[in-house]
Design a protein that fits this description.
By secondary structure, the protein is α/β, with parallel strands linked by helices. It is built from 32 helices and 14 strands. Helix 12 packs across helix 13, helix 15 crosses helix 16 and helix 29 runs antiparallel to helix 30.
């Protein structure tokens, strides 16, 4: 057998024929497949490098580095184990010279139902699992050779979409599309494509490619797959559009936010406009009037009705997709449940079950679940992660659950009973544990999922949840928290993902959140308080470079948690400071109207706390701080009279605190700062005599503090600044 040195010499003489076969370690089936792949490559004149044939255990890393250094192509047999292996990821990323894999050096054969992560998720890949499953060696060899040569007529059913064009504007929601989990909607995709491009009778106008708007509204019950279909269309057809953008249309506020996020890419400072509605309209105008060779695609997700998005549609140069539970649209494309055959195919593929008995049981389970995609996905996830659980056994357990809770449909009419049943059954199994205590019960999972139900459904950074197991707000041990997340992920109730830099985030389906809020209605305030404390305490005020990215990821969670955060009682303090932090972040970004709105909302809570407990100096100080923050924004906006009123209101509170506790240096310093704020506004108003009085009063306070504690460098510095 050739040694590694022999192989490297042969590759040096004919570099275009070298192929490094990269695979994960322990699985015998994957090892046998890798050996077969190498044998077939060699038979066709390629020079394969294979770990099992050419690497010794003692010098594995040196051998791998030597092989990759030759510049050979890397054929990656990707699997769940592959993405968990540091060495395998290194092999793939070494070959990935550019995010788009433009040189084609990395060839990806996907051999199970795993999902690519990080930079690899935008690389072309071929789904080798179906043909490997058949055991047809000739067909396996055909697909293998076509993967190497990458001919233009490669079977579209096997080859997955091309990598993302880095020059395009594509919203991250569209890049979240999971091709492997999408099935049974080819007819709907075709109808949607024809409606948008051919000016079908249900469209509002014709010929979107020539500059007009074509629109289609995907309507149907919760869990039918509207959002998934819209995302799949956008992802598969992204090459036909100049840019693709996603808009959260369930609320006008989020709709405006997302349009501004699009527009600020071309208009510097658009997110700092005081009139945010006008800023959003400017973004829409840019789309409508853009001189582009291809139209835009705009997806308005989860809109309540036509009136919500009517003012925000581009008037030209765009295709528009709307998803809505409301069927009353001029351009409605009502979605039905999956057809029985497609539902069976989806269940079997997603669960990794493909025996004839499996397919027969899948047909019965699919019918039991009403062929609803979301319920089917949850059932498949449960069966995939428990190989002993057959489709028939799962169906029996679901029937028993419904028998025990016959009123679930009445309680949860906003989403299908099958969705409620599958999700609740998954959570019940986690809480109860397995038979004979294996796995053991995990009650912490309910708390974790209850907290997640109060956050934004997608891209929840993992650091936001750290306070649940660390610090003064911890409610469980870290080990219990980790296990809770593992069980929730295995049960299909949460999903892990990655930001562009590889940092992890979590996702929870909106319906899972609704179900959890309903399930935990009696603990609603407790869950809201835990979520608010977690978000408030993870605000990164360090000012470091890393904090910039963290805060951008923190902000959607801050906005989401505020919607249900407590506004009464001591816990409302965390709500108050979350609002002040949101205001601080928006002020730092130059978004003064948003900052003012957050500060004003926070001030209302501070006033209630201070009024309810007037002897609590902390509440009084928080109220004063909110006045100062509002004054800062008003001053930046040029509204000096109201800014002066805000600073004076703050000063009056600090004056009372300082008088009540004259020995408290903190109150004295706060009083001095409020004097300076007043002085600054008076200077800008041209009232120099009163400004001088304010600055002198501030100076006198610092003079007393510095004299009382001459060793305190901070007081000396403040004194110097006041002078």
């Amino acid at each position: 057998m050739d040694t590694l040195d022999d192989v490297l010499k042969a590759i040096a003489a004919n570099p275009k024929k070298g192929i490094f076969v990269s695979r994960s370690g322990a699985d015998d089936k994957q090892r046998d497949l890798a050996i077969w792949v190498a044998q077939r490559l060699k038979a066709h004149g390629y020079i394969p490098i294979l770990q099992d044939a050419h690497f010794k255990r003692t010098d594995f890393m040196l051998a791998m580095d030597a092989a990759l250094a030759t510049g050979v192509r890397v054929l990656a047999l990707t699997s769940r184990e592959y993405f968990e292996s540091e060495y395998c990821r290194k092999e793939a990323l070494t070959a990935l010279n550019s995010p788009g894999n433009w040189d084609g050096r990395l060839i990806v054969l996907k051999i199970d139902d795993s999902h690519s992560k990080g930079q690899l998720r935008h690389v072309d890949r071929i789904d080798f699992a179906p043909v490997w499953r058949t055991g047809n060696a000739a067909e396996m060899e055909r697909v293998l050779l076509q993967a190497l040569e990458a001919p233009a007529d490669l079977d579209a059913a096997i080859r997955l979409p091309a990598p993302v064009d880095a020059a395009q504007t594509i919203h991250h929601q569209i890049l979240m599309h999971d091709e492997d989990a999408f099935t049974g909607r080819d007819g709907d995709l075709k109808n949607l494509h024809e409606l948008l491009w051919n000016g079908g009778t249900a469209a509002l106008t014709r010929a979107g490619a020539q500059g007009l708007v074509d629109e289609a509204a995907l309507s149907g019950t919760a869990g039918i797959g509207k959002t998934t279909l819209a995302r799949a269309y956008a992802y598969r057809n992204r090459g036909d559009y100049h840019g693709l953008w996603w808009v959260r249309a369930e609320k006008t506020d989020t709709l405006i936010d997302d349009l501004i996020d699009l527009g600020k890419r071309d208009i510097a400072g658009l997110d700092r406009w005081e009139d945010r509605a006008a800023a959003a309209r400017e973004a829409v105008r840019l789309v409508s009037e853009g001189k582009t060779n291809q139209p835009w695609l705009m997806v308005f997700d989860n809109a309540a009705g036509e009136g919500v998005i009517a003012p925000w549609r581009p008037k030209a140069n765009a295709h528009v997709i709307v998803t809505s539970r409301n069927p009353a649209w001029d351009a409605a494309v009502p979605l039905a449940v999956l057809k029985p055959a497609a539902a069976v195919e989806f269940l079997c593929d997603a669960a990794g079950r493909n025996q004839e008995t499996d397919r027969a049981e899948a047909a019965a389970l699919a019918q039991q679940l009403g062929y609803l995609p979301l319920a089917l996905a949850q059932a498949a996830s449960k069966c995939r992660n428990n190989r002993r659980l057959t489709f028939a056994a799962y169906g029996r357990r679901l029937a028993e659950f419904w028998d025990d809770a016959p009123d679930t449909r009445a309680k949860h009419g906003q989403y299908a009973n099958s969705v409620y049943g599958t999700f609740t059954l998954a959570l019940t199994d986690i809480l109860r544990g397995g038979p004979e205590g294996a796995p053991p019960p995990c009650p912490e999972a309910e708390t974790v999922l209850g907290v997640l139900a109060h956050l934004a459904p997608e891209q929840i950074p993992d650091f936001v949840l750290v306070p649940l197991h660390t610090g003064r707000h911890a409610v469980m041990a870290e080990k219990a928290f980790d296990r809770a997340l593992e069980e929730l992920a295995a049960g299909g109730l949460v999903a892990w993902g990655e930001f562009e830099d590889g940092a992890p985030h979590l996702g929870v389906h909106r319906l899972v959140q609704e179900i959890m809020r309903t399930r935990l209605a009696a603990r609603a305030m407790e869950m809201a308080a835990l979520a608010t404390k977690a978000v408030e305490s993870t605000y990164d005020a360090s000012g470091s470079l890393d904090s910039i990215a963290r805060l951008e990821r923190w902000l959607p969670q801050g906005k989401a948690v505020i919607e249900r955060a407590p506004t009464q009682g001591p816990v409302a303090w965390h709500t108050l400071w979350t609002l002040l932090q949101i205001g601080d972040l928006n002020q730092a970004r130059g978004s003064l109207p948003l900052a003012l709105a957050a500060y004003t909302q926070g001030q209302a809570i501070a006033e209630r706390l201070a009024k309810a407990d007037p002897g609590n100096a902390g509440w009084q100080r928080d109220l004063s701080v909110s006045h100062i923050k509002i004054g800062d924004v008003l001053r930046a906006q040029g509204n000096l009279p109201q800014a002066l009123q805000a600073f004076q209101a703050s000063h009056e509170i600090f004056e009372r605190l300082a008088k009540a506790d004259p020995g408290n240096a903190g109150w004295q310093r706060d009083l001095s700062v409020s004097q300076e704020k007043i002085g600054d506004v008076l200077v800008e108003q041209g009232n120099l005599p009163q400004a001088l009085q304010a600055f002198q009063a501030s100076h006198e306070i610092f003079e007393r503090l510095a004299k009382a504690d001459p060793g305190n460098a901070g007081w000396q510095r403040d004194l110097s600044v006041s002078q």
